[in-house]
Amino acid sequence: MRLHIKNVSHSYDQVEALRDIDFGIEPGEVVALIGPSGCGKSTLLSIIGGLLKPTGGEVLMCDQAKPEGCLNPLTYVFQDFALLPWRTVAGNISLVLEDHALSKSERDDRIAEVLAQTNLSDFADAYPKQLSGGMKQRVGIARALAVRPAVLLMDEPLSALDAQTRILLLDEFSDMFARTGMTAVYVTHNLNEAVRLAHKVVALRRRPGTIKEIHDIDVPIKDRVEGMPELIAHEQALWALIRDEAIAADKELEHVA
Amino acid sequence: MSRDVEQGAPASLVRFRATGFNPKSNPVAAWASFVVVIALWQLGSSTGFISELAMPSPVAVAKALWQLIVSGDLWLHLGASLQRLVGGWIMGTVAGLVVGFLVGMFTWARSPGVALVSALFPIPKIALLPLFIIWFGIGEPSKFATIAFGVFFPTVINTFGGVDNVQRNLIRMGQSFDLPMTSVVRKIILPGALPTILSGFRISSSIAIILLIAAEMIGAQYGIGALILAAGNLYQTDQLIAGVVVLSLMGLCVSWLLGRLDRWLLGWR
């Protein structure tokens, strides 16, 4: 097991966001976290990567399962890209390599390699403001890949993009997972993304966030195509699972300012 | 039914309504305004409408300025002033940046820093010059101290405001890649705060010029402020206005330099 989320609970002041979350992530597995807004899925992702201290429980990482040349085992891809506007595409990737003991040529090699993997080679010297949303997220992916992560933590990576770009990037993610066998935790509220990319879908219930069901999808990722009957069946099963929660979330008044 | 419009039913033209509120720049008009004002001024002086004693003509001011240049007095005054301006500004800015970063980043510095700055910022710094003269003597150090003190506070306020405004998600991104603290400060917080810091430089440099002149008027042998004061005492209004023109040019130079600095450091915007 690469990651073990062990009895994790978290509260913000009075509000209990997560209660007793317990599951494991195997090497090479893509786990999607789904649930209505307010179910604590982003909170859970922050806890998994060590950006938030849970009020209870812990996350354990298996050290042996690190890929070669791994500089940052748990690496995030952010919804809002989090690119430095004053650095070029190559500079943004360089940022996460500069503090490691890599020679200039090793660093340049890694940058060139991940730019090629994400089809960004022609944009190395462009600034983020010149790029479309989809390109910015490709830079986010390239930056994450540059540190050769053990687990990719993706926080709604397609939510800030328009519908067409989302379709394109979803295909690219699917290719990437199929090709590299990357381990990943993928937070989304979009069930279509979940059934296209995940081996295992963890559906959360809200207030407090607990695991409602862990849903396995056994079609190999490389065989999955848009509109495949099996995937549609899975998507409908997931929707049936969280529909009531989503309705409740929709009707709720905001308590926390 | 709405098709009737196309088929010859009475129709009225839709009027364009979004006019105005969109001023555009015109460099020719900018220069022309100078020419017109100076020409009118000269006309008023030549016809005797403006008394030569109250307000010398542009030609007389130009002559006085030329006199100052050829006699070498101008360079003496300007040199003394620039030295004080640059020295005092740099001292105040460096101290302000350090304190601003501390206040912006650390809880322990936050509340004490903000409280002290808020209490001391509103004091007109020139009021402290007599105290600085007692501490440092009538010479240069008291003038440096006045300027530095005046520059310090707006720099602190702008710096910590700039640090506050750096997007939290960028800092969290840096931490998520395990960037060391020094790298987060140098590569994320500093460049992120730079636009606000640089706009603070515009405020602090104009404060520095005001304090420079005030300090020089209180006690200095050389300096543009001293020159203006001495000319006023002797009713040499042409020399007085010449000094004011030099100040205006100095202000323009400073703002031009800061503009260059902006373009050099903030090219990414």
Automatic annotation (TrEMBL), chain A:
It comes from the Bacteria. GO terms for molecular function: ATP binding; ATP hydrolysis activity. Residues 3-231 form the ABC transporter domain. Gene3D superfamilies: P-loop containing nucleotide triphosphate hydrolases. Transmembrane segments: none annotated. InterPro entries: AAA+_ATPase (IPR003593), ABC_transporter-like_ATP-bd (IPR003439), ABC_transporter-like_CS (IPR017871), ABC_transporter_ATP-bind (IPR050166), P-loop_NTPase (IPR027417). Signal peptide: none annotated. Keywords: ATP-binding, Nucleotide-binding, Transport. Belongs to the ABC transporter superfamily. This is Nitrate ABC transporter ATP-binding protein.
Automatic annotation (TrEMBL), chain B:
GO terms for cellular component: plasma membrane. It is found in: Cell membrane. InterPro entries: MetI-like, MetI-like_sf. It holds the Pfam family BPD_transp_1. The chain crosses the membrane at residues 28-49, 86-108, 115-138, 144-163, 207-228, 240-259. The keyword Cell membrane applies. It comes from the Bacteria. GO terms for biological process: alkanesulfonate transmembrane transport. The keyword Membrane applies. Keywords: Cell membrane, Membrane, Transmembrane, Transmembrane helix, Transport. Residues 78-258 form the ABC transmembrane type-1 domain. PROSITE patterns: ABC_TM1 (PS50928). It is a multi-pass membrane protein. Belongs to the binding-protein-dependent transport system permease family. Probably part of an ABC transporter complex. Probably responsible for the translocation of the substrate across the membrane. This is ABC transporter permease. It comes from Thalassospira lohafexi.
